[in-house]
Amino acid sequence: MPRTICSLSRTLRRSIPRPAPGLLAAALALLPVAAEAAGPYEFVAAPAVDLNRIYRIDRANGEVTSCQYGLRDDSVGVTLCFAAGEGAGPQTPGEYGLIASRHARESGIYRVNYRTGETSACYVQIRQELVVCTEQAGPPPAGTASGAGAAATGPAPGRAGPSATPPQGTRP
Fold this sequence. Notes:
Blueprint: H1 2-15, H2 23-29, H3 31-37, E1 41-45, E2 53-58, E3 64-70, E4 78-84, E5 96-99, E6 109-113, E7 119-125, E8 130-133, H4 147-153
Parallel strand pairs: 4-8
Antiparallel strand pairs: 1-2, 2-3, 3-4, 5-6, 6-7, 7-8
């Protein structure tokens, strides 16, 4: 009986076509082309459910801009775009992306550097008509607590340090 299983296995191996030599190498060579086809930009909508704003990031340098629809009485409307302002301009070269929070009233977005793990918050500053971002930051090294990270890693109950964000799940 084991002989029958071995014969069947050999028959199946012979019947499966083998790729032509170099086909795998050619397919792997096309991978960078496929990544470039996606484009140098990423677009993400602001999480606010009543805001028609999108953010755009340059994936290579982290520059963030934004556009939204504006009403006009005399026509169909206009696209309003906001240039990169303080902190939203080009950063050190990296691999950047945008992440929207799940907060229904949040009009900002997070810029992340996938290579370093650093994050910053970006939003449209309406008075200046520019996109601004906080300084790129990451968690402090394990076992240390300094700067803004110290307040974030402190005890949550009672909020040991000042915070601009109200406790989640409660009314302000």
